[in-house]
Specification:
- By secondary structure, this protein is of the alpha/beta class.
- It is 16% helix and 22% strand.
- It contains five helices and 14 strands.
- The strands form four sheets. Strands 1-2-3-4-5-6 form a six-stranded parallel sheet, with helices on one face. A four-stranded antiparallel sheet has the order 13-10-7-14, with no helix packed on it. A two-stranded antiparallel ribbon has the order 8-9.
- Helix 4 crosses helix 5.
- The chain is elongated, with a radius of gyration of 24 Å.
């Protein structure tokens, strides 16, 4: 079985639980190291803070090599921008520390770091958003292929006229006759409310603006440009997929693809396709 590391370390009092579940903590502060040793020690990792100032031992406080230490890691703050000087600064700091642990695996890269060059790769990489097809780089063409599709069924189609408003707060007012479709997806499912009056769904290959505020369970789209047969009850609206990559939806929402995926709720039915290991 593969080793499973808990990147957040161990919360005080959970050492025995981790050991029983064969989960190895990535220790990030002296107190965790003391508690892990007191609980019997064993396989563990250590995170070194090389400049992100999040989790991790500061380099000057890094522990000496200890029995069971199998992984030494850090995390890049600006890996989505290959030109950012912080990347080289962190790489240099990490390599200096890693030399103190010649018998441990080393790991520096998450998704963005995988594209910075072979010198950043170390022994292990930790791809995250790249596995879902999100762009691990701040700009430029996405080197990854999208693997997730998010759709929702249309529940009702209705016509409105000039001056009619849509949704809570009447934030959208029609400038003329429009045809609307109400789909079964809302912010309770993870469709961010910031997409109200600015995001799109795709119906039969046609981009359809979201109009009015997104509700808890429902979203309304202007499907006036779609053939009536294509936008009818039972038809599906694509929010993530080949016609609208997740990064495009994220830009419309004013966030990152990471947050889009992290917000998708348990009410959404998951269907897995393709070869399973």
């Amino acid at each position: 079985a593969p080793d499973t590391y808990v990147l957040a370390g161990c919360v005080p009092g959970t050492e025995a639980t981790l050991r029983a579940a064969v989960l190895w903590p990535v220790l990030n502060q002296p107190e965790q190291l003391v508690a892990w040793r007191a609980a019997g020690g064993g396989t563990c990792g250590v995170q070194i803070d090389t400049g992100m100032n999040r989790l991790g031992f500061r380099p000057e406080d890094a522990p000496e090599p200890l029995p069971g230490l199998a992984l030494v890691m850090s995390h890049l703050a600006c890996a989505d921008d290959a030109a950012d000087p912080h990347n080289l600064e962190q790489l240099t700091a990490f390599k200096a520390i890693a030399r103190r642990f010649p018998n441990a695996w080393t790991s520096l890269d998450a998704s963005g770091g995988c594209f910075l060059g072979p010198e950043y790769t170390c022994d292990l990489v930790r791809p995250g958003i790249a596995l879902f097809g999100g762009n691990p780089r701040k700009s430029g063409e996405n080197p990854m292929r999208g693997v997730a599709t998010l759709t929702a069924p249309i529940l009702q189609v209705r016509s409105i006229d000039r001056g009619d408003t849509v949704g809570y707060g009447a934030t959208y007012e029609a400038s003329g006759p429009r045809r609307l479709a109400v789909a079964a997806l809302g912010y309770a499912d993870g469709l961010m409310r910031t997409l109200s009056n600015r995001g799109h769904g795709v119906v039969s290959g046609i981009r359809c603006p979201i109009v009015g505020r997104i509700s808890m369970d429902l979203v309304t789209l202007d499907v006036s440009e779609c053939p009536p047969a294509a936008a009818a009850p039972g038809s599906h609206v694509e929010f993530i997929g080949p016609n609208q990559p997740v990064d495009e939806l994220a830009r419309s929402a004013g966030t990152l693809s990471y947050e889009i995926f992290a917000r998708l709720g348990p009410r959404i039915i998951r269907q897995y396709t393709g070869t399973q290991a």
